[in-house]
Design brief:
11 helices, FAD/NAD(P)-binding domain
Length: 426
């Protein structure tokens, strides 16, 4: 296949992977996981394969719905996590950055740099993997709170799709409910930095699709989106994903995202496209991930403990990595408790936030600080001029360098030229 030519992939899930709405609610289990997103489903499957009795619940009755996620991953992550072809919407090899001056800057690699996922299909597949591993899956149920039921168990109140209530007893509960943090709650103080986004899935002509295929396109500058950015990603042939997002700034009156999305549609000549789906979402993280990762036998996972990265609004890879890190710790803790070594189990789980911090690395923390400084500053012509200097400095880079920056936070590739502008030193 020639570089840059689209690959036609199968997006349909086979019938045997469709997950029905579960009915009977169990009374107890060893581990209850709240949230069947990437982190929750991945963790539940790993625990079940290790022999634990696991219940996984999610507030959605259909995991393919409410599929807000830009869902762009590098190829290394697609391979590392073993993602099947049916969750991949398209492959891309290049980048396009459009700045405040409307100039289109292109970077193209000879090899595929990454994939854009069908996020609904990804959730469906991960939950199916968990179910096949023996996890009991309850869709349409939400956790309303949990409390201690003695020294070695928790009781969690569940609300069902028809308003029915059930109480489930478990040895451990994992809050993987995303930025809502439905059980852990928000971190104390005002440490959260939050962003909001709106995204549309468009049906377009073949000519329009080819104009945006094989690359990730971003629109930067206050004339596009104030204190944020816009994007167009290729999906299945004939479909594009178009969206806008921003960090929330309580000190500034911000334009409506819907109006900025309409402006992006008009300026990219896509206003006449058929809209197949409209969805939105929220992201919130602490910059240095300083919030508690547990409260007794309640553990946090994924976005609930700020693994979502604010620089590119990216959460899937980090959530999957966090699940793979927590799984062996929790399996061993359950084993130690069963052997009467509860104190050792508690000490073991105290390693969790330390190991997660090491796994994400110092570049992850730096990218969070850069996100706040970069996006919140994009509000006027002065910041646009600084952005123009940054984009000009990136013109000599390769597509692979941009991938290393935006996915691996490898600022040293050319970051010493770029950081002064991002930090406002020039």
């Amino acid at each position: 296949m020639a570089p840059g030519s689209p690959e036609r992939l199968n997006f349909e899930l086979p019938l045997d992977s469709q997950i029905p709405l579960a009915g009977q609610v169990p009374l107890d289990c060893q581990v209850l996981v709240v949230g069947a997103g990437p982190s929750g489903s991945r963790l539940a499957a790993a625990l079940a394969r290790a022999g634990l009795d696991v219940v996984l619940i999610d507030r959605l009755s259909d995991l393919r719905s409410a599929a807000f996620s830009s869902a762009a991953l590098p190829m290394a992550a697609v391979r590392r996590f073993g993602l099947p072809e049916r969750v991949v919407a398209s492959l891309w090899s290049g980048w396009q950055l459009v700045g405040p001056d409307d100039r289109q800057r292109h970077w193209q690699a000879d090899q595929h740099q990454g994939a854009v996922l069908d996020f609904g299909a990804l959730r469906q597949w991960l939950a199916g993997e968990a179910s096949c591993a023996g996890v009991r899956l309850l869709l349409g149920w939400r956790a309303q709170g949990c409390h201690s039921d003695g020294p070695s168990s928790l009781q969690t109140m569940l609300l069902g799709p028809g308003g029915q209530r059930r109480c489930l007893t478990s040895g451990w509960v994992v809050d993987a409910s995303g930025e809502s943090r439905s059980l852990l709650g928000k971190p104390p103080g005002n440490s959260l930095v939050s962003g909001v986004g709106v995204e549309w899935l468009l049906q377009v002509s073949d000519a329009q699709w080819h104009s945006w295929s094989d690359r990730l396109s971003f629109f930067l500058g206050s004339s596009w989106v104030q204190q944020g950015y816009g994007w167009i990603f290729p999906m299945a042939p004939g479909q594009l994903k178009l969206g806008v997002c921003r960090l929330l700034d309580p000190g500034r009156r911000q334009p409506a995202l819907a109006a900025e999305l309409q402006q992006l549609l008009a300026r990219t000549e896509l206003s006449g496209a058929e809209v197949l789906d409209r969805h939105g979402g929220r992201i919130s993280s602490t910059i240095n991930r300083e919030e508690p990762h547990s409260r007794g036998r309640l553990l946090g996972l994924g976005d609930a403990v700020s693994t979502a990265n604010l620089l590119g609004g990216e959460g899937i890879r980090h959530a999957l990595s966090a699940a793979e890190l927590l799984a062996p710790l929790l399996v061993e803790a359950v084993r130690l408790e069963a052997a009467g070594q509860g104190r050792r189990a508690a000490r073991l789980l105290r390693r969790y936030p330390i190991q997660l911090r090491r796994a994400l690395g110092w570049r992850w923390n730096l990218s969070g600080r850069l996100a706040r400084r970069t996006w919140l500053s994009l509000a006027d012509q002065r910041s646009d001029r600084r952005l123009q200097l940054l984009l000009k400095g990136l013109e000599q880079c390769r597509a692979e360098d941009l991938s290393a920056l935006l996915f691996d936070y490898r600022f040293e590739r050319y970051g010493f030229k770029a950081l002064p502008y991002l930090l406002g030193w020039r």
